[in-house]
Amino acid sequence: MQGFKAVTKQDAARLRRYYADCDYGLCEYSVGTKLMWRKSLHPAWAEIAGCLVVRNEIDGRVAFDYPVPGPEGDEDAALSAIEAYCLEQGIPLMVSVVPACKAGMLLARYPYVRVSNVRTWQDYVYYREDLQFFAGRRYSGQRNHINKFRAKWPDATFRALTTADADVIETFWRDYEAEFPKGDNAKARDELKLAQEMLRLVGKPYFLTGGMFDGEKLIALSLAEKCGETLIIHIEKALYSYTGVYPTLVQAFADAFGEGCQWIDREDDAADRGLRTSKLQYGPAKLAPKYCFEPQNELLRHVQAIPELKTQRLTLSALTEADIPAYNALVLDSDRNRWWGYDDVGGLGAPVEERSFFEVASRDFQNRQAVNFAIRSEGKLIGEAVLYRFDCRGSAELGCRIDKAYAGQGYGTEAFAAVADWGLYKVHLSRVVAKCYKENEASFKMLSSCMRKKGEDETFFYFEKLV
Questions:
Q1: Which of 32, 195, 337, 410 is the Cys-Cys partner for 234 at CB 3.0 to 4.6 Å?
Q2: Helices then strands (H, E): number in the chain?
Q3: pLDDT digits over 29-70, tens only?
């Protein structure tokens, strides 16, 4: 999967093709969040199988949003592409900020998966009518604040902000910074700078921006975005010297821009105590979960050490340091390895050293990405069988290569069958797959003897063995 592009302002209209009708109801599925936090999350996007796929970086780890389908989007194909990308890059698969409506499908997709739902990530989601009308006893506090505001500033008005208000907005930020109560909080200062940058996008058709005015003076503003049936509030700022202006702004904004929306999402609280208290006081209908799915492969769950397998003539076991000379000779036999399908030397990304290939195999098992079995005849390494490309969905790929001095004696078939059975019945895979070049008659014969042919393309024949 190629073609990821860092999110920029120029991409906003393209992303909105997907987010405009997205009903996931989470702030991450919006242009505003991608733009506002792009310097910390480094979002990059691609269009795959009719879906928007976004790759982020969270605490130094790659994490994907759940795919957002277009009219003809294929979510399954997009997820498969994400899985393949992680396999190719050798990184753990993580699908983050998964909405509740998609969690069940991922639970069914991955046999072994770690799921978290961090409280501080959850969005505060309100019924639009609640914020528009503040009706009922539970909102008496908000109504009292609004009444006090209206009594003191009876001529205050709310209206949409446009590009013509650029100077007014800049004046507002100067006034806001003059009374900013968190000036000594680095995180709050950074968030304020991001909000100021976002307000320079006033006038873009995908953002809804409004402000409360005391005469000609802008005293509060908000910027939002409609995604499906949810109005997502990206920014709410007001001058603290105007008591009661915040609930007044919330109500006026919901009334002006909430038409057609069932929900208003005021985003998470960033673990800020003041924000949490305030957002809870507005009576959210729900705290929308954002599930993080970290699928695990069968090696992580079932294999603590590489076992010893016995066949009629062979022993298969972990590579040892004593195997390094023979293993290097096997890996560096370029004539035979033209059928291997992987460039071991090129894959190092560094000059070849005596321990290079041994250390790659050791590291792959430590990370539970692969199992490299040394194939031994009378104690001597004569080949290698590798179970790899664990897709976290019950499948892995198997490859086998035999030293040229031992070719044509059935050792490859014997070792291949042993590792396939181990994968299916000890590692608890549901499927082992393999492939061979169409020109490789020996491999075709070997695979045909112990697996079922699954298909072909211009380059390979494909095989599988099921439980």
A1: 32
A2: 17, 23
A3: 999 999 999 999 999 999 999 999 999 998 889 999 999 999
| Tens-digit pLDDT profile for residues 404-460 | 999 999 999 999 999 999 999 999 999 999 999 999 999 999 999 999 999 999 999
Q: Do residues 93 and 157 both lie within one domain?
A: no
Query: Are 41 and 104 in a shared domain?
Result: yes
pLDDT-above-70 percentage for the chain = 99
Indicate if 230 and 254 belong to the same structural domain.
Answer: yes
Same domain (yes/no): 241, 146: yes
**Cβ-based neighbour number of residue 88 at 10 Å:** 11
CATH number for 183: 3.40.630.30
Both 57 and 93 in a single domain? yes
If one counts the domains in the chain, the total is 3
Q: Which uninterrupted H or E stretch holds 44?
A: strand 44-48
Which residues make Cβ contacts (< 8 Å) with residue 110, sequence separation at least 6? 293, 295, 296, 392, 393
pTM confidence score:
0.91
| Contact of 318 with 382, CB cutoff 8 Å | no
